[in-house]
Structure to design on (302 residues):
């Protein structure tokens, strides 16, 4: 049956309706966490662990954009959802920072060089507008909100995958698995917020489509680059090399260790359907059921 009960992996069919989004504190103990946390599967471990290198600065970019957008939002329910989103994303960033600073460093990997690249990309390339023209800064904000909506669709897709993937069969480290499932559950829970904020600011079909075309390939590229960085700097494993690494990724997707490439593609393509809404991704009831029993969340209240 594994560390997590089988019934939790079956999606509840009864939706809970609209829920109040709120941050939940978690507590992990990374003192003994392995770097290759899927035993004998270094490539899959590096790809999933690459999220720890990429996600924190991306989430801080979205938090910054939401803070910039909040004064212009008059819809009280949307404001409430935005504040809950900000709180959750802040805790996500802190949790992944802890993996970088504790797990990676303990295993001989210095995350600073890659983290600095992420800071430059998200804070400079996708940072706050600095034009003397307020209209240009407003358009930049809208673009950033559109990118946030596209990124959040990816995170919701990956969160839904994490909640349903049977990684226990591969001997996954329970704490690492809980990290991704707790984070993934909250991504499913707040999957519509960034989309609705972008729509509130006038991001229509064409702009949303362009954001998706730009965001998804860049994000996947960053993840693969971060995974290769982990492999090159892990003193316990040989440098696999790019061609073999890519073949290893494809093999891992086919065996269920990583999200399937075809499912990833079709999930992205679904956003181009007119009238698309993120509520079609995942199950809120399943997400809430998971966070209610997450070991890391329960540890805080023990």
């Amino acid at each position: 049956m594994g560390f997590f009960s089988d019934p939790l992996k079956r999606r509840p069919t009864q939706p809970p309706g609209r829920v109040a989004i709120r941050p939940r504190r978690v507590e992990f103990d990374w003192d003994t966490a392995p770097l290759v946390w899927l035993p004998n599967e270094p490539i899959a471990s590096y790809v999933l662990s690459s999220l720890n290198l990429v996600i924190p600065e991306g989430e801080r970019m979205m938090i910054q954009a939401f803070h910039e957008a909040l004064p212009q939002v008059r819809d009280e329910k949307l404001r409430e959802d935005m504040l809950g989103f900000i709180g959750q994303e802040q805790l996500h960033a802190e949790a992944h920072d802890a993996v970088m600073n504790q797990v990676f460093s303990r295993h001989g990997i210095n995350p600073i060089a890659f983290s600095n690249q992420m800071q430059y990309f998200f804070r400079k390339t996708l940072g706050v507008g600095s034009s003397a023209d307020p209209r240009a800064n407003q358009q930049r904000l809208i673009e950033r909100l559109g990118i946030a909506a596209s990124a959040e669709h990816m995170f919701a897709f990956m969160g839904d995958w994490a909640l349903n993937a049977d990684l226990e069969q591969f001997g996954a480290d329970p704490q690492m698995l809980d990290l991704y499932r707790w984070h993934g559950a909250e991504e499913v829970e707040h999957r519509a917020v960034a989309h609705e904020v972008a729509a509130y600011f006038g991001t229509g079909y064409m702009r949303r489509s362009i954001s998706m075309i730009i965001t998804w390939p860049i994000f996947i590229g960053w993840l693969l680059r971060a995974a290769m960085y982990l492999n090159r700097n892990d003193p316990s494993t040989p440098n696999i090399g790019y061609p073999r690494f890519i073949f290893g990724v494809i093999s891992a997707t086919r065996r269920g260790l990583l999200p399937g490439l075809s499912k990833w593609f079709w999930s992205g393509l679904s956003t181009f359907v007119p009238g698309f809404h993120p509520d079609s991704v995942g199950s809120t009831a399943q997400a809430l059921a998971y966070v209610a029993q997450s070991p890391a969340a329960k540890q805080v209240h023990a």
Residues 1-14 have pLDDT under 50 and may be disordered.
